[in-house]
Amino acid sequence: MKIELLSGLLLDDECTLTLGEISRACSAHAEWVIELVDEGILEPGGHEPAQWQFSGPCLNRARVVRHLQQDLGINLTGAALVLDLMEEIKDMRARLRRLEREN
């Protein structure tokens, strides 16, 4: 019987990652992360790549983009659109839940 262990890291809004850390977490080159910043998908703190700090939610966004590219062949512009639509759906669901509770 083979037992597979899973491990992970739970990050919140206060946790920050450097360019190198977010690159490693996504199994990607730093240039790919820089492209995400250039496309407006990620918004790091700091003025230049050596000073950038990424939040936990940035890591989640980067991982979603990585999966969209690898699994579906979506380019960065398309991935940015998918992320926006996913966020809009999440907001609409939250609004619907609030309305259902009020009634």
Structure description:
The structure is a single chain. The chain has 103 residues and is mainly alpha-helical. It is built from four helices and two strands, in the order E-H-H-E-H-H. It has a two-stranded antiparallel ribbon. The radius of gyration is 16 Å and the shape is globular. The model has no long low-confidence stretch (mean pLDDT 90).
Strand order of the main beta sheet, please?
1-2
- CATH class category label: Mainly Alpha
Using the alpha-carbon principal axes, give the shape: globular
Terminal-residue CA separation: 51 Å
The domain count comes to 1
Note poorly predicted spans.
none
Short description:
With about 100 residues, the protein is mainly α. It has one domain: Multidrug-efflux Transporter Regulator, Chain: A, Domain 2 (Orthogonal Bundle), CATH 1.10.1660.10.
Produce the secondary structure layout.
Layout (H helix, E strand, L loop, with lengths): L15 E2 L1 H7 L4 H9 L15 E2 H17 L3 H27 L1
Antiparallel strand pairs: 1-2
List keywords for this structure.
single chain, mainly alpha, Multidrug-efflux Transporter Regulator, Chain: A, Domain 2, 2 strands
